[in-house]
Amino acid sequence: MIKVMVVDDHALIRKGIILLLKMNQEIEIVGEAGDGEEAILLALKEKPDVILMDLSMPNGVDGFAAAMNIRRQLPACKIILLTMHDEEIYVQKAIEVGAHGYILKKSQGGELNEAILTVLRGERFYRTGIPQEQLQKMFDKKGKKSSILTMREQEIVRLTILGFTNVQIAEKLFISSKTVENHKANIMQKLELKSKHELIRYGIQNHYLDLTV
Fold this sequence. Notes:
Layout: E1 2-7, H1 11-22, E2 27-33, H2 36-46, E3 50-53, H3 63-73, E4 78-83, H4 88-97, E5 101-104, H5 110-120, E6 125-127, H6 132-140, H7 151-161, H8 166-173, H9 177-191, H10 196-205
Parallel strand pairs: 1-2, 1-3, 3-4, 4-5, 5-6
GO molecular function: DNA binding
InterPro entries: CheY-like_superfamily, NreC/VraR/RcsB-like_REC, Sig_transdc_resp-reg_C-effctor, Sig_transdc_resp-reg_receiver, Tscrpt_reg_LuxR_C, WalR-like
Keywords: DNA-binding, Phosphoprotein, Transcription, Transcription regulation
């Protein structure tokens, strides 16, 4: 039997995925979780073969963070990210955290079974709107990181990616909001970026979500 765990903060979606998977008699559902922290604890207890993991979850531990944590502690476990996000920055981050698969929630139910069997064979399963040639280049770039920013600047990039405002960043780092603005201006100048979207893209591609602030 293939031991599978399902992680999604929406109970109805979670139950729907489980119902689809139960149609395959070779799959055993060993657990379900509603947030990243719960997923980590449950994975360590049940040691599933495969985890289907949502990305956007509450309580501070998203699917990326949970996937990295679980992979460190259970290297044999295969993680497939199941999400509504088809943007390149999310796919790039999935590659960087070592996710074995990436499926969109709008996919057909049969792809779940195909993805599970594929990753168990040691192959990756990425089904996104990104062309295969571009996707391969993203895999080829895995692990490359620039150190052009200071640690404080990297902290600010990370918090910006997570959606914090300048005022919230200032409170978290015990500095003034004006100082945050100055740091952001320096960051944008160093990286030759023109928009917040470009900054978020850069931060994800260069692993700044991995920092502990």
